[in-house]
Fold this protein.
Amino acid sequence: MPQNTLPQIPGIRLASVPAKIKNWQRDDLLLIEINEGAAVSATFTKNAFCAAPVTVAREHIRQGNTRALLINAGNANAATGERGLSDARACCAAIAEALHIRAEQVLPFSTGVIGEHLPLQKIVDAIPAAATHLTGDGWDKAARAIMTTDTRPKTASRTVEIAGEQIRVVGIAKGAGMIQPNMATMLAYIATDAAISQPLLDALVKEAVNASFNRISIDGDTSTNDACVLIASGATGPQIMDMRSAEYERLKAAIVEAHIELAQAVVRDGEGATKFVTVQVKGAGSSEEALKVAFEVGESPLVKTALYASDPNWGRLIMAVGNAGVENLDPSRVNVYLDDVQVVEAGGRAASYTEAAGQEVFSKVEFTISVDLGRGDCSEHIWTCDFSHDYVTINAEYRT
């Protein structure tokens, strides 16, 4: 059993149990109980084929006073029609009965194979055990229970002093493939014992996600099920109600840092990944333009296979920049660096560049590709990884 490394969050209890959703010997069902009066906010996938639990969770969170989250691994309950919605609601009803709350106070989440119906009875049968094993020490087990193709759990924690009180932030996430902005086949749950008003929490979750999970890409595919939930139990300290206050800024910094750590952990554990690469774009005319270029570079299969091969094929980099659709881009103003090695100067091969210098950077397990468009003052960055043989194998064999 893994050692508990994550602190408790007063007002939050968790339980992980085996529902045997797939043929595996592990916990695959997670219940998170939230105290009365907590604030809960979330962001969800923008995929038009959003899964049944996403539809139900969106409906329920709008009603407020969320008291529980239920997460299952192994089955996405996506593209499952009316039965999928009925199954998601049945899970909520079973949690409501076990915790003596209303079904509308439960948010359901699923991750796994698309297009298969939930083994509903297995989940319902496992819920009483989860309800009786709730504990504040459950974060480490929870991080493992929500894994699918992940090779390791993803966790983060921070402590910050606010109004003389020690405020804790804890987060867990899962995700290794089907990862692209607007979240991913990624689930993330971050909690704090701080007290913060609902409007501020709603703004904070969007800002934190935009700085973290919306800056990563494994393969350019946006999942049907992704979600990120931010919980403020309100168990410690005075309520934060002013976005301009120092207390809000300190809490925001800790929460954003936790989101970024989790997002980067997703990239580092990308399916078959051997490289962690930051793509930095500066000199852009707008943030949107910078992100467009960064993602074009970070998601190009040709770039990602070159990363895996440790081949500094810089022609693929400028190809990707040119494919980003930047209006009136002047190639003669573009410069490209691999860490501090300039490879492209004024749109062509830099006079100082050597293949050996590029090879040295591309052979690293972590490095930065920097693109200067020379057309403005805006800059943005994303985190990505390479494509390896294992990525193909993992996804080719995913259902077998």
Summary: The domain at 12-268 is CATH 3.60.70.12 (L-amino peptidase D-ALA esterase/amidase). The chain has two domains: 12-268, 276-396. The radius of gyration is 22 Å. The chain has a mean pLDDT of 92.
